[in-house]
């Protein structure tokens, strides 16, 4: 018994099981891409070896070669490099599972286990320097718990060349069936895997050869891409960085689309960033019938001096990195401008077709192309995707308005602030949506009328609180604009009369000299409407012109010099024999002596105003009260004087059937 007990001085260690460790390696044969993983791992070892030997000059000094050949009917691979070799430190790390020797460079310490997972065995020959002398190390690796490294020798090699040769011998059948048979397929897969090492202008020498073909990986990648030029850009007042623009063909990329910005130091990529989202580009760039991804490489003394000793990160603050990315992105957007514009143009055409079929979304698009550029992901290519995105914005717009109306409905109304900026913003957004679908249109009409009624603010005795004429004018129609300056539907003229909705051209609080040819008049009617598709117009007659004047509520001081009729008749005289032009000088309408005018005076019917109505013979009462109408033959003018309360009541009555139908 005593002989079976361990001495306290004996070192206690966990025992390793190579066979079990390799078996548990997550590299199953059912995944086709796993067949090439051992090759990738061997190439990584070679890259690290030449980096360790040549340091900053590794791109110019390093050489890596890969040969693919058949051994007794099974694929085999030889990987050669002129790197530092398997000296004692590297050999110790090589024999340690999960070694952290290369952890700072992303190494996991399991690469050689993949060799034994996929291949029958491996042979390694490595020449290294020790104390000024050269030695050659040679051994085999097999999947054997007792003797995984066999025939190991170390001999002097006075005539040797420093470097390592790894032979991966006879790929196992379950993996061999997934080994690509075409050389160009292998090239693309290797290029995709080592892309960060190959995108810089200075590329390491990596050759891939078979029994009949030989390729330089850097040259192959160059044939699969397009160089778009290079430039310097500032990151501070004293520092500049260099940016190389490249497009890489879809065939050399694997996985999802990735437009990438690489930051390099001493010809070696240190960090990379996916910039697809920042570019608004989530799909490939199409050029000359091919599909590409963008790869930009930033380099310069600022990055060279700031890279850490392991060359895995930069000793720079986050702000400097962000300034670098932002400066590069600004240049990338310029260089990719034509490609981005072509995608946007196609999407804009698609958007217009969708909106043509579903006009309910038209209110969202003041400028279709701007909407696409700002709000549509670049990878949207179908009508269904565009429709879904429009529906999302439509939902958000409705939700936002409902929330704002709810907040405003709880606010206390003051006499001094009848139409708050928040209400004006809501009214503007509401009216933009009124011509979508009937249900939306009707619901918003009710909201507008509710807001208007609340802002008019009638007291319990039936009198209306005093509000600014300008505020009420802006509620119905924006001031100091024409239909060419804002969307044609951005008004609430339907509150006065539904027929006003169909006028194509209108102007609000604009000087006549800005509307009429050869006019220098400074007069500014509150609202003018021209060229309407309206029931007012009879075939064979001139298009009627509409004039609307808003008067301050409860105003009672009209006189000979200042009253609604002096204003309206003055406007008519100035408009007669005039030509209404649009902003580009195009003719909208000629106004002759026979052109009819339809005029609205929106005011409180105070005693003084009623007197002027009688004097102007505009004194026929409207049914139900609340206004008067009449006709002036001299001016060919039909005039209605309507009280604010009547306008609101009439608008409700005209829409009441729809309100009831929708239960609102």
Strand content: 15-25%
Widest beta sheet: strand line-up: 5-4-3-6-2-1-7-8
Note poorly predicted spans. Answer: 103-109
Rg from C-alpha positions?
41 Å
How many extended strands?
24
Principal-axes geometry comes out as: elongated
The average pLDDT value, as a whole number, equals 82
Distance between the termini: 95 Å
Give helix % range.
25-40%
How many strands, what sense, and barrel or not for the largest sheet? 8 strands, mixed
- Total of domains: 4
Task: Kindly name the structural category.
Answer: alpha+beta
- Determine the number of helices (DSSP H or I, runs of at least 4 residues): 21
Could you explain the architecture of this structure?
This protein is α+β, with helices and mostly antiparallel strands and 664 residues long. The chain folds into 4 domains: 18-179, Histidine kinase-like ATPase, C-terminal domain (Heat Shock Protein 90, 2-Layer Sandwich), CATH 3.30.565; 220-335; 341-396; 458-658, no CATH class. It contains 21 helices and 24 strands. It has an 8-stranded mixed beta sheet with strand order 5-4-3-6-2-1-7-8. Helix 15 packs antiparallel against helix 16. The N and C termini lie far apart (95 Å). The relative contact order is 0.05.
